[in-house]
Protein 1
Amino acid sequence: MQSPIARGRIARLDTAAAAAAPGVLGILSHLNAPRLPHLKSAVYEEGAAIQTVLPLGDDAIHYVGQPIAVVVAETWEQAQHAAALVRAEYQPGQVRGPLETRLNEAYPPRPFFGGITADYARGDPAAALGAAAIRVEQTYTTPVEHHNPMEPHAAIAVWHGAGELTVYDTTQGAAWSRQGLAEALELAADKVRVICPFVGGGFGTKGGTWPYAILAALAARHVGRPVKLVLTRAQMFTSVGYRSQTLQELQLGALPEGTLTAITHSSTSIGSEVGESPEPAPEVTKILYACPNLETHLRLVQLDLGVPTSMRAPGEAPGTFALESAMDELAIALDIDPIELRLRNYADTDPASGMPWSSNGLRECYAQGAECFDWARRNPRPRSMRDGRWLVGWGMATASYPTHGFPAQATATITADGRAVVRSATADLGTGQYTVMTQVAADALGLRPDQVKFELGDSDMPYAFVAGGSSGVRSVGPAVRAACEAARAKLLRLATSEDESYASILARHGLAEVTGEGSVDEVEAADGHRVNAFGAQFVEVRVDADLGLVRVSRALGVFDIGQVLNPKTARSQAIGGIVWGIGMALLERTAIHPTLGAVVSTNLTGYLLPVHADVPAVDAFFVDVRDPYVNSLGAKGAGELGITGVAAAIANAVYHATGKRIRDLPISPEKLL
Ligand code: MOS
């Protein structure tokens, strides 16, 4: 049972009819549920929860879809039937309307994600803007979006006595999920085990501990039996976060030949009473171009909605839409080719920290992308390319994502048969971690991939942080490698010669197995270098001049992710990211009723996602870049980079095709008419 109102109180809750329904084992509501603590926030503290205020604590309603009762029954159908018999009366409050009407209530978030501050400045942007020969000043907006993984969130909670709990959860981090569950249920972390060997898509929504898993554990304890709780597709729109709407104001100041002299970038996103997760859209602006005078601002407006969360390239996805659209507008104002404008402002070192890049192949991405796309043939004049009733346009934008480093540990066990089992509590959300970590381990051990078994997704395994922020290859990779090297070194010390087999060494010493441990700690430091992955996105669109329909007819992404560990899985990530970008640019938007605060269409009919017919033959490849600093593999991450820049490249192509600049996503047909 979920609240249909966004704000107010539960005036009366009657569960008697539901309790008497066939098969019902128990009902939890604020009338009988234990009071749970407020959780530490994954955004602000070393917590595992995004939603810090848990449901069933009292009669207060904070958002549409807030759970007000959990009905447990013998079968799913019986539970559904009984839930429909729960009677609730509400005392509704005044719902705080859309973000754009409440900007006077905006407030700065406190520092989050290990140091992102609400306000940042270098140089004197106000003076530099005042003196600039050319200025671009625009507002760019992006809507609420949902992650929509095909696998909904689900949990099976099993208590072993009163004090020990196993949860089969859908999570991007088993150890992370365990931490949130332990905190919510006030158990020691070692009394909770979370198991999740496979994830059917995550994209950030499975990065934190959400109430459904905690409710499953509470319900299981209440009825004294294992309980399975699966969110419906509709509940996926109200229960596990979303990407916040952003309202971004950008100012660029430049010299006539294109040198940027000033940038300001302010972004406002959604705050919530049950948690806080700012969308760090201006982060990319701090580092992408060599601009001496720059300031960024982040603000939140509290609305009566659930808490937003990270979604594939949080910050960079909407941030690059605004920045890279504005750069295109500047290129047009100055009559400079968009790639040339970017090269004139190329950041040879990180302009925010002054640190050198661990590696930077962006120049090669521009050059090889332009060559492959045949960019030189582009006539810069809008509406200059036509094919029958189709207006054709070409656009480009820069891609950028930091690929974060997080703590990771692994063990490698070489067994008597000469094979190896390697473990880390990370996750494979369809990204290829199983495959790639098997390769890394096989390589370090000198074994064939089929002789190595890589296991993940169990909080009892060596700790790994949530598989997010494109951190898997960057952080788990070197931990796996170190564990394998440690195991190999242990055995080689016992060997008679360099090429004695593992099986023979173990047999001669009467050992069943030998285990090595590996860990990665201060990976963010990268030996005094700033780590960032880069790319260049190129897009051709065809716009129906009469109907305003936009079709992407060609898309090419060229990326620098350092060493490519597996060309197939990396390319799949890149292409998947570009497809996401097509959805973001042209289709995706969660409509929220302005006065009711409710998601209007809680289904995949009302939420448009790209399908095969929307996606052309997307191409993606990687430039060859050595990165001696990021880690022992020379590999940056690939998971989130691919979406960045795509929406801007499409908006820029739409401008080139039509002469119309759309600054509000998605670029739906009515905006072009
Ligand atoms: Mo990702 S949005 O950091 O799981």
Protein 2
Amino acid sequence: MKLLQASVCLISLILVLPSIFAASSSEDFDFFYFVQQWPGSYCDTQKSCCYPTSGKPAADFGIHGLWPNYKDGTYPSNCDATKPFDSSTISDLVSSMKRNWPTLACPSGSGEAFWEHEWEKHGTCSQSVINQHEYFQTSLGLKQKTNLLGALTKAGINPDGNSYSLESIRGSIKASTGFTPWIECNRDGSGNSQLYQVYLCVDRSASGLIECPVFPHGKCGAQIEFPSF
Ligand code: 5GP
Ligand code: 5GP
């Protein structure tokens, strides 16, 4: 009888254990930041940049990443080493990723190292909601839907090396997407503050934009440069 009880116990444990591990490998979070970068501002810094092996990207915003975040401003990262980046799961998306998620880091690469980094650091923390294919597909859809360059140029804000007010940049993106963006600046080779990245927030089921529960930190000038690319 004891032996029977012990085996029932052991079998239940074996059945329950995997679900405990599955639950802890995909951490929870409150919302996403969807972050896009202006290539001109990545490249005109002191550090400079390298074009991808497929050639110079279009003069358009590129995806940086889709980042799960907590409402208190902190965020989970590198949540699941058992789910490495696997390009075979996104073979149908790769040509669109090369255009919309180009890498500008040196040395030149195809983009895979950048996508791998974003999936492993951020994407693995979103698996309670989206899998690897959905992570990249959702990001591509958001880029198309938000059309940042369209929003800015419609308001007369062009990547021409001139300076524009931060307020007009924020306002034009809000007018076009319906949501308030966070603008991150960096400095060009001469030290001028310029439009580097745009953050928009996405609800935790990755179905659409929301107003950001919390903004990142950092500061731009009141007037910032929008460099050409
Ligand atoms: P940096 O220190 O250059 O602002 O950010 C370095 C990296 O840390 C980012 O590319 C991103 O991977 C991560 N990171 C920075 N700030 C945030 C944030 O507010 N939320 C999340 N989820 N990741 C962030
Ligand atoms: P994060 O800042 O998202 O944690 O890390 C970005 C990582 O991706 C860095 O290691 C950076 O070198 C690499 N990377 C590759 N291509 C790009 C790019 O085009 N933009 C940015 N921001 N990082 C890139």
